[in-house]
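Sequence design from tokenized structure. All designs in this work follow the same two-part layout: the structure record, then the generated sequence. An example of the structure record is given first.
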């Protein structure tokens, strides 16, 4: 019976912890959205730069010219 009592106590503690953790607040969503948009902007600038664009065109060109 001791193991069962410990399990019951553990379950009660888990339920109490789950009730306290309600998820992200509106301000956390806003900061996360701004961070994601900033990361997307930086990634777009990198991918559309001349060096990366040339390298991607080269890789795609080699892939399309590959013999089957």
């Amino acid at each position: 019976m001791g193991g069962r009592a410990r399990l019951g106590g553990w379950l009660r503690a888990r339920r109490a912890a789950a009730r306290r953790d309600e998820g992200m607040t509106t301000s956390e969503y806003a900061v996360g959205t701004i961070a994601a948009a900033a990361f997307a902007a930086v990634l777009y600038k990198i991918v559309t730069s001349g060096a990366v664009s040339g390298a991607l065109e080269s890789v795609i060109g080699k892939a399309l010219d590959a013999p089957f």
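The first helix runs from residue 2 to 20. We note this feature because it recurs in several other targets discussed in the main text.
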